[in-house]
Fold these 2 entries.
Entry 1:
Amino acid sequence: MRESSFEHGGVPGTPDCERFLERAGKDMSERVAKRPTLFIVPAAPSRETVLLGTRCSGGHVSFPPQQMGCEVCGAHGEDIETIELAASGTLTTYAMAHRQQRPGSDSPLVVGSIVLDAGPAVEVVLDVDDTEGLSSGLRVVGHLVPVGEDESGRPIVDCFFAAARPSEARG
Amino acid sequence: MGKTLLDLRPVYVVGIGLHRYQKVSKASYAELGLTAVREALGDAAISWSSVESAFVGNALLGMAPGRAMLKHLGATGITLSQVENASASGSTAVRHACLDVATGISDVSLAMGVDKPGSVPFSMSWTGSERLSSISPLLSFALLTNDYMNRYSASPEQIAQVAVKNHGNAANNPYAQFQKARTLDEVLENPVAGSLTRLQCCPFGEGAAAVLIASDEGIEKLGIDASRSVQMIGSVSRTERIYAPQESVIVELTRETAAQAFDEAGVGPADLDVVEVHDAFSVEELLYTEALGLCAEGEGVRYLGEGRSQIGGDCAVSASGGLIAMGHPFGPTGVGQVAEVTRQLRGEAGARQHAGARLGLAHMVGIGQVCLVHILRVRD
Ligand SMILES: [Zn+2]
């Protein structure tokens, strides 16, 4: 669940939000990943989000990461290694769900198809309030968004994609 | 490469039966299924004791529903197989009944599908892989719809015309879940996701469908009316390969599966008179008319708009009403498609008959990664 109090600190997942968290007295280095098999929470909040993927000995990249066997060539076991992937890519298409809201938020649910710069395509929830400004070919990056707290009060973050700011829009 | 269906002995659809697709009711799945099988037996004018094997397709009923149902036709010792292949369960049952007869193991086989939405879990969620977001099929198809509009400059209204056509066809189908013609304005009401509206999405429901497959020997032995039998000349089942990341798996998989089926059956898309496709969402019909080769890529909207896929057009697409309007109760769907194509090729489809239909195709997709194509032809 997304913590609604964080909404007032700016756009979730952006440095604005992270500054808000710092003002709120949270130690950003203690953020906890909601999906630790899929992304890394960098110690420094300013660092870019990193996804976890796998690559086989033939060079085929998978996201989500998996050790069961490469879909392209069947390599498995020691022939698959875990690698870090940039949480950046290109939006191919998007759609708003008219009857569903993003969990923990008043915003409508907007989903998108993204081709990651590392190769794989993923369908994801977008960290946007509407479809304005979205277009095919838009550069997008993954941000860590607070979605709750764990038992010891540390912020739990999830990875959502949104339009890259100009400084991030390389690739 | 081994043999194709046409390399084996000829097989025919000799009986068809359905239980109307409908909103979930108090009827047991067994009542639904038995209704369809008894109608198919009556249609073929044969007794249950003549049927040597049965392939029962379900995706939503859990373990072994077939035996508890079919025993009520008489416990004859029949060979029984349960078939589960998601939305393509029924189509897969049809394929295995055809192979059972074509290889000479049985002379008469039953393929059926029956389902009621239940509480069976998706085993895909047990593979241990986590996902960034859990995107429902509805949202995936909303994404595909937006992608189609963007690629080919199609409008929401043009895509909605698929549902106008198919609801109109289903109005003449007594087995359809929806039997009401709709205007474009009605179809455009009730937005659900992206430009998809409620009437452009297949309904939840239940139902049953059955087809009886027989060899020439079976037809002769049982005195079946051969003039009403329809030959199955192609049956292909494939799963996905790796495609470019921006391409749709179901479209590329459909293109490959159909191409193989045309090759094996020795026919081409221009020869088709009737086609039933997996139109669970309106945009799918456009994508599949293109992938099957009924029209060129990106021409689906024009093909539809010119009335070429209407009953009476070049090739009647989803004359039954399709998944959008006839319904998509999972297990029955693919069997019901073969029943519809058979009815059309027999010339027995009444108010929704496509005149002079001689060659038909049924296309089904399961879990977005399984595809079946069957091709049927009138007897010479
Ligand atoms: Zn590989």
Entry 2:
Amino acid sequence: MSERNRIAVVGLGEVHPPQGMSQRMSASEAARLAIADAGLQTSDIDGAIDLRRTGGGGDRASYSDTFTRFGGITNAQFYFTIGRGGALAGLATAAATGFLDRGLAKYVLCVAAVDDWSKAEESKKHGHRGMSHAEKEGYWGKALGDLRAASHHSWMAARHMAEYGTTSEQLGAISVAQRQWACLNPTARMYGRPITIEDHQSSPWVVEPYHRLDCSLISDGAIAFILTTEDRAKDLKQQPIYVSGQGFGEVNDGLWWEKKNLTHMAVPKARDLAFAQAGITLDDIDTAQLYDCFTGEVLLQLEDYGWAEKGGGGKFVASGATAPGGDGIPVNTGGGLLSNWHLGDAVGFAEAVTQLRGHAGERQVKDAKIALSTGHGGELVSPSMCSIHTTTILTAE
Amino acid sequence: MTNETVTPWNKPRPNIDTDSEEFWEGLKRHELLLWTCKECNASYWPKSFCINHDNEPFAANCEWKASSGYGRIYSMNRHEYAFHAGFKEDVPYFYALVELDEGPVISSTIVGEQPTDPIRDIGRRVRIVFEDHPDAGFTLPRWELVSE
Ligand SMILES: [Zn+2]
């Protein structure tokens, strides 16, 4: 591990539900909670980053220009938006690292908010399902029937099934395992609602091969976290959780003709960089928070990181390896986007911090010291979807 | 082959911009245009640059050329929900990502004879069908299964 002054997560705030809260309100409340959690004052925050999704239902500049003013973050010397699809926390952390390393800020507030649930409810009144239905510049498919993330993300699962014989029941095992985790998490949306493989199989098709229970939730809520340097972190209220390694990958190295895109994610470069910085190997990871907009993404990442061989992910998850008490790797221990709630990679990032602090209650992974948190997203220009992959290694020591 | 509909367009409109305008004009003439390199004949879609050469100015060595219109299903799904009200009469529909013989991948629905299964029929041969919507001002590409 390098001798440099590492970056640490020192405050965490999470607001969800209630549903029906505006983004600026929930973002401000999450920020307030994170600042209090760190034992800091609002006036200590001298930089702010707004985690904004792009593509999909994300919109770029709605409340974003007002956040620091609305939230009373008056001492922020810089404030900007960052994000690529669901890849939010990983990018924000890397950006904040630059400012902190250079002495441009002492305490950076990162905040993300979402009101997809409210938007989807509004959309239903017009007879649609889901959020935005306007075709954006350079996009393809809405006029033809490629309408939402499930419309093209399900191609990944379909291609994996055709190529490797993966089954819907195996994807269901991912859904069931994460629901088991959610049932240990009192704040998860699906707490108290266990499911079986049979429930997964009998849940309606949304876009075959995806059943309803292969798809992530639509949520309202916000997450904020505070980053500072290791030397400052030691004096604060909470045990610092260190950002020990980060790496980034792009799957569209080969532009639109890169068909490997459908059965692989841009993991290798991101993983190798992050692992090398943290000085770890795969076996050192105690829990993995893998981006799970759909079950297929979890399957692909389990293979791409190396917990299973390519094509062998189905068997791996069917054995219960990722579930509570499993013998593989505890995955998405808060329930993930499938069963906890959805605010991009910020949900897994927050869960990783919670686990490493030892604050995860009944779902606590014993002696969790090293956590992986991944992000995924990007423009949905069919078929080069969600080309970014982010790897963040968080450590308790 | 033409597949003309007369109902008013009640779905999202496609994005047609300066990069894709010629492609959409080609569809109206029932040509599936691919952005093709004049030097090495490599094909791209959407408009891009040729990876095999220097590009000065950007993408200058390429032009739009008609595709054979044939390819294979690379991946596929079956939509059971109408996410947009305009698709209520269309569900369930098969939506396929097609790998053209020239290389690029383009997605659309399957018209005519329907596949039996979104997974098992991956790999099947298809060809382009042009669906004219003169009132809406565009022609849409669709795919149809062909036997080998
Ligand atoms: Zn060329």
